[in-house]
Design a protein that fits this description.
mainly beta, six-stranded antiparallel beta sheet, two-stranded antiparallel sheet, elongated
């Protein structure tokens, strides 16, 4: 099991006229809280073959793209869960994976073209729920 948490409260220590930002303004694109939890489990099922399962949960807190959050696109504030289970041995792996289990929607923005925000709406969504069956063979 692995867990991580990040708390941020970043603010400008002095103003910046070029950015139209005052002393004390919150820094953009940085969530106040982000965290995650990952668990993995392995269990032998018969000689040389084991069952393996894992789950990964992430929360990304909300933030805004610019200093003035009233004029800025919102991003973050989403939960994401992925799970994986399968069988494996020294030569092969067979696993079923599901990413974004609850088909969570959110804006990652990923720093698109910030110069055209007034001209068009910009939104960088999370990858939708995706299921995959994987087979890996070593030679």
């Amino acid at each position: 099991m692995t867990a991580a948490a990040i708390w941020n409260d970043p603010h400008l220590v002095e103003g910046n006229g070029f950015l139209n930002a005052a002393k004390g303004d919150r820094l953009p694109a940085i969530a106040s809280f982000t965290g995650g939890l990952s668990v993995a489990y392995e269990q032998p099922v018969r000689r040389g073959v084991e069952f393996a399962a894992s789950a990964d949960y992430t929360y990304v807190g909300s933030s805004s793209l610019f200093f003035h959050k009233d004029l800025s696109p919102r991003m973050g504030d989403f939960h994401r869960l992925g799970i994986r289970a399968g069988l494996q041995n020294e030569l092969w792996q067979l696993a079923l994976s599901v990413t974004n289990v609850f088909n969570t929607r959110g804006n990652t923005f990923a720093f698109g073209n910030s110069f055209s925000l007034n001209a068009t709406s910009q939104y960088n969504p999370l990858r939708p729920r995706t299921m995959s069956l994987n087979y890996v063979r070593s030679f």
